[in-house]
């Protein structure tokens, strides 16, 4: 049942993004940034944690989950370190994801060659 919940919620996030791509003039980059911001806002109101508890990886893997991790990490760092935590919490909480993006992005760039259209 956990797989079905993750598939449905993750698929819903993807379907919403596809609707934005098809029906608006927003670029995919703006939509992706919107997803991160939505994750932060939903975390601020305490909503995203309930979604993540219900859907598991279906909510923690998409970019909304990255926004949720950012918001949660900043909140914890501010509680521990005060004002300075607002600047350090996001990076320390998401360092694994950022490192993976850099490593895999570099590997793909080294393996494949771009082609002109």
Report on the structure:
By secondary structure, the chain is an all-alpha fold. It has helices at 2-23, 28-44, 48-55, 57-60, 63-81, 85-111. The protein has one domain. α5 (63-81) runs antiparallel to α6. The longest helix is centred in the last third of the chain and has 27 residues, at 85-111. 24% of the residues are buried. It contains six helices and no strands.
Q: What are the salient characteristics of this protein?
A:
mainly alpha; globular; 6 helices; 117 residues; single chain
Question: In which range does the helix fraction lie?
Answer: over 70%
Q: What's the β-strand tally?
A: 0
Cα(first) to Cα(last) distance is: 44 Å
Q: What is the makeup of the main sheet?
A: none
Oligomer: single chain
Count of distinct structural domains = 1
Question: How large is the radius of gyration?
Answer: 16 Å
Topology order in helix (H) and strand (E) letters? HHHHHH
Q: What portion of the residues fall into strands of 2 or more residues?
A: under 5%
What is the tally of helical segments?
6
Mean pLDDT: 90
Q: Which structural class do the helices and strands define?
A: mainly alpha
- Could you name the ranges where pLDDT drops below 50 across 5 or more consecutive residues? none
Gross geometry: globular
Compile the SSE list and pairings.
Blueprint: H1 2-23, H2 28-44, H3 48-55, H4 57-60, H5 63-81, H6 85-111
